[in-house]
Specification:
Helices cover 0% and strands 56% of the residues. With 88 residues, the chain is mostly beta strands. It has a four-stranded antiparallel sheet, with no helix packed on it. The radius of gyration is 18 Å and the shape is elongated.
Length: 88
């Protein structure tokens, strides 16, 4: 069992990488739990935010593409890993 936090920051001054001049930040916390021998569960929460509206929620407005209308987004995911093979 364990919890693993992570924080990242990316300054895209001229928009070369993301297409928009902005400061992007991201925080992730991952919890891990060994359910049984060879079975691992991971729960992850992630928050992304920017100083510019960059994120979409749902489909693009009126079928347009480009930058979003929100400065943040949250994601929650659950994964289960199974290990197969000879035991050590």
């Amino acid at each position: 069992m364990g919890v693993h936090p992570r924080l990242e920051w990316f300054k895209d001054r001229d928009g070369f990488s993301t297409g928009l001049a902005q400061d992007l930040k991201e925080f992730t916390a991952t919890g891990e739990y060994k359910m049984a021998e060879g079975l691992l569960a991971r729960l992850e929460y992630r928050r992304d935010w920017s100083n510019q509206p960059f994120f979409f929620r749902g489909s693009a407005v009126n079928g347009t593409t480009g930058f979003g209308t929100y400065k943040n987004q949250d994601t929650l995911s659950l994964g289960v890993l199974a290990f197969f093979g000879p035991k050590r």
